[in-house]
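Late entry, evening session. Most of the bench is empty. Finally got around to the prediction I had been postponing all week. Sequence below, unchanged from the version circulated by S.P.
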Amino acid sequence: MIKRRMTKPLSIGNVTIGGGAPIVVQSMCSTDTRDVKATVYQIHELEDVGCEVVRVAVPDMEAARAIPEIKKQIRIPLIADIHFDYELALAAIEGGVDALRLNPGNIRRREQVEAVVRKVKERQIPIRIGVNAGSLPPEDPTANNEEKQTLSPEEYIAKRMVDAAMGHIKILEDLDFDMIKVSLKAFDVPTTVAAYRRMATMCNYPFHLGITEAGLTESGSIRSAVGLGILLNEGIGDTVRVSLTDHPREEVRVAYEILKALNLRVESPTLISCPTCGRIEVNLFPIANQVNEYLRTVGKPIKVAVMGCVVNGPGEAKMADVGIAGGKGKAVLFRKGQIVRTVKEDEIVSALMAEIKQIEAEMSEG
């Protein structure tokens, strides 16, 4: 079992982040926030796949003025993503957002940060200090060059990221404000991991994890799984966003799969399927794909095994809630470790679906 880093809890709307609460899954709208209808529609799509907190871009005052109407029509907490102009943060707060994301790389003047903090203190809403490797404050020309020479490039960028975050934290703490969440994102996995590890020794604020600009769904999912998986396995991280060049609902699905792989959030079905080899005696690919599509509609943590031969098949099928072990154009159907019956190859999918439905109904009743 993973021993998680204990952090200060904070509330974003009705969602608790940190303090040992379950790791929260977030995403960000890809719509133009000024288009209320499109933004609300996308947030509803995200709610349907389990997104627990959503962020929207606020690039101008028109977007800020859209926030109250968006808030009225959604169920999950709303975060405003602010860059460059602190007055947009003030407007978003007035509009009723549940939290802010500020980038210390492009909102640097202390008096502007102070103005925002005064307003969030009134409303008791948190601030995420969101540091990105691609938008760090300019380097200090008087900085210690020895560090640049002795640290690896990844470690040096990680240190700059942490320094930027700590500088912003100091301003907030000087103003007696500690409703803080921190993120330290880079595209490069070693840099991101180094930054979070360093930061974890310096504060107990909750961390928002992510590999920024991770890429298209396939490569971005792998990159995110590696980076987030390393940190989560070390107990670091309180909320996650997987950043993909795709519809944001894919970010949510991948995030839950990463958490499920580490047994941190097991709230949806798990499909175990063999990679196939020369021993396989049923046409496993279409069977596994059909079962996987069906499992997208199932809302319970049911473990399903679709195995194609007699080597590992019976063992994996026995350990699952329901499973099949294929052989010679048929399959043995298991449920909770017991053999139910033998089915023909063309009956495998329907037989599995029937058992899954029954288990799901029993779990709902129990």
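Two things to note before I forget:
The chain has two domains: 10-261, 270-365.
DSSP finds twelve helices and 15 strands in the chain.
Will write this up properly tomorrow.
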